[in-house]
Amino acid sequence: MLDRITTELLDALRDTARLRTSPSCGLRLALAAAWSAYGHALDVLHLKGLGRAVPSVCGGAAQS
Fold first, then answer.
1. Contacts 24+ apart (CB under 8 A), 17-25
2. What is the pLDDT of residue 11?
3. Which pTM was predicted?
4. How far apart are CA 21 and CA 18, in angstroms?
5. pLDDT (0 to 100) of residue 60
6. CA 8, CA 16: separation in Å to the nearest integer?
7. For residue 27, which of 16, 15, 35 has the smallest C-alpha distance?
8. What is the pLDDT of residues 1-56, one digit of tens each?
9. In the Cβ-directed half-sphere of 30, how many Cα atoms lie within 13 Å?
10. ∠63-46-5 over CA atoms, to 5°?
11. What span, in angstroms and rounded, lies between the C-alpha atoms of 41 and 35?
């Protein structure tokens, strides 16, 4: 099961490479993260986790 999930995750990363390397990625990601944090009423711990995870999304292509 873990192998299947890992494969699906890597496929999804590959499929989003164009979006993650676009110039608008940072702004779009920041807006999505803020909307998600608000919508899910994240507490301080989860906001910190989101803040640490988000910067790694834009600018990188999936490794295969």
1. 17/61, 17/62, 20/57, 20/58, 20/59, 20/60, 20/61, 21/58, 21/59, 21/60, 21/61, 25/57, 25/58, 25/59
2. 94
3. 0.68
4. 5
5. 57
6. 12
7. 35
8. 899 999 999 999 899 999 999 999 999 999 999 999 999 999 999 999 999 999 88
9. 5
10. 35
11. 10
